[in-house]
TrEMBL record:
Ranges annotated as spanning the membrane: 6-22, 34-52, 72-93, 105-131, 186-204, 225-246, 266-285, 370-389, 395-417
PANTHER family tied to this protein: L-CYSTINE TRANSPORTER TCYP, PROTON/GLUTAMATE-ASPARTATE SYMPORTER
Protein name as it appears in the record: L-cystine uptake protein TcyP
One GO cellular component, as annotated: plasma membrane
GO MF annotation: an example: symporter activity
Main location: membrane
Lineage of the species this protein comes from: Bacteria, Bacillati, Bacillota, Bacilli, Lactobacillales
Swiss-Prot/TrEMBL keywords: Amino-acid transport, Membrane, Transmembrane, Transmembrane helix, Transport
Length: 463
């Protein structure tokens, strides 16, 4: 009977896939298809969860097949990350005006990411106070104990990391290895390598314009090819989101969510406030927040379901340049750095909350202004090099708690609700990278208001 039930679930999934294919043939708006897939995934996942349970053989078996579509889609997006970053950044150097703005772009992007992470950390701490979670204890069963032991082994791999060592790790030593994404800092390493290629191009172009022109045409051709591949992959978004959402909903641990409900609510409240902060920043730079929400909804929806900041980079760059009016250089720097530095959700709110929760259990006055500033400083500095894939928040938390000499058990106790919280964290991470791109583009006066105000200038127009 198990195989029969699995076949029935897969048949329903295949029917939903065909439904979205039919919608595409009928030229239904891309954003409509994406959010319809989001809703359908929640409904189908909830049905599986209620009828069969998260740990039944049928659920596990069906999800393993459905994962082919969901994880396959995320893998295709991650496949595009390195070539897209390379051709986009090098291509930006081949255009006029980039050289004089390079310093401003780098400084503004990184400065915005770190500043917002510091504020996000403060918001996380305040949410702990508001929900009276400081000093809170959570249920520890056999599963949690096993996770804590595993985290202890993982902490050994990060406890010797220092900020200077993290900075050095950004520098590429083997660019071919970094192009394959072999390290957590590979994205930044490729950005740096691409910048060197761009600077070298400018030098060659001055001395030998003919060679420079040939190189520029080559990069432009490569850029068009890569962007065409991006378009082909993005057409699979509704199917990928459907599969990813079914998995998240069907396999969520309802008991753990119930036991940790207050922590989940506090986390979502803090992340919502951080997102509001992003909208306030837009007001400051004179960008309509409602236009931003409307045009960024597709990539934010993908970030929410996929839980991968790195996987969202192609869609992130597409959204910034084609829907929001951000120049190519700012968009590529912001999306690339935003996937590994200063993530507001994973490296800001989450580790700050855990530090504030656990500090009172070891006799620390977490209400002390000096200690609050200490947490914010450690969180901000530690936000360098946090991988933009699943597990980045755990990595950041281990670094922060270890730096503050706090017990890491709290990470294992709340890890059951990680997938649920991670969806909102990733959305906030991606939003922050786009905010950094907008702020930077505004500063260098390359922001195109006409694209932002053009309702037809949306991602779906090219999909």
């Amino acid at each position: 009977m198990t195989n029969l039930y699995i076949i029935i679930i897969l048949a329903l999934f295949a029917a939903a896939i065909y439904g979205f294919y039919w919608m595409q043939k009928k030229h239904v708006k891309f954003s409509t298809r994406v959010f319809s897939a989001l809703g359908a995934g929640i409904v189908l996942g909830a049905i599986i969860q209620v009828i069969l349970g998260a740990e039944s053989e049928v659920t596990i078996g069906a999800i393993s097949w459905i994962n082919i579509v969901g994880n396959g889609y995320v893998s295709l997006l991650q496949m595009l990350v390195m070539p897209l970053i390379f051709v986009s950044i090098v291509g930006a150097f081949t255009k006029l005006g980039v050289s004089k703005n390079l310093g401003k772009i780098s400084f503004t992007v990184i400065g915005t990411l770190l500043a917002t992470t510091a504020v996000a950390a403060l918001i996380g701490i305040l949410s702990v106070f508001i929900f009276n979670l400081d000093g809170a204890t959570f249920v520890q069963g056999e599963a949690e104990t096993a996770r804590i032991e595993a985290l202890g082994e993982r902490q050994e791999a990060v406890e010797n990391l220092s900020i200077p060592e993290q900075v050095v790790s950004f520098i590429p030593t083997n660019v071919f290895a970094d192009l394959s994404g072999s390290r957590s800092t590979s994205t930044i390493a490729v950005v740096i390598f691409s910048a060197f290629i761009g600077i070298a191009y400018m030098g060659v172009n001055k001395k030998d314009p003919e060679t420079g022109e040939f190189f520029a045409k080559l990069i432009n051709s490569l850029y068009k090819i890569v962007m065409r591949i991006v378009t082909l992959v993005l057409r699979l978004t509704p199917y990928g989101i459907l599969a990813l959402m079914i998995k998240v909903t069907a396999t969520s641990d309802v008991r753990a969510i119930w036991n940790l409900g207050k922590f989940v609510l506090a986390s979502y409240s803090a992340l919502a406030v951080v997102f509001i902060m992003h909208l306030l920043i837009l007001l400051v730079v004179k960008v309509n927040p409602l236009s931003y929400i409307k045009k960024a909804s597709t990539v934010l929806g993908f970030a929410f379901t996929s839980r991968s900041s790195a996987g969202a980079i192609p869609l992130n760059i597409e959204t910034q340049t084609k829907a929001l009016g951000v120049d190519e250089a700012s968009a590529n720097f912001a999306a690339s750095f935003g996937a590994t530095i200063g993530q507001n959700g994973c490296a800001g709110v989450y580790p700050a909350m855990l530090a504030a929760i656990v500090a009172p259990t070891v006799g620390i006055d977490v209400f002390s202004p000096l200690y609050i500033l200490t947490i914010i400083a450690v969180v901000t500095i530690s936000s360098f090099g946090v991988a933009g894939v699943g597990g980045g928040a755990t990595f950041a938390s281990l670094i922060v708690l270890g730096s503050l000499n706090l017990p890491i058990a709290i990470v294992g106790l709340v890890i059951s609700v990680e997938p649920l919280i991670d969806m909102a964290r990733t959305l906030v991470n991606v939003s922050d990278s786009m905010i950094a791109g907008i702020v930077t583009s505004k500063r260098i006066k390359e922001f195109d208001e006409t694209v932002l105000n053009d309702e037809a200038a949306v991602i779906e127009s090219s999909i």
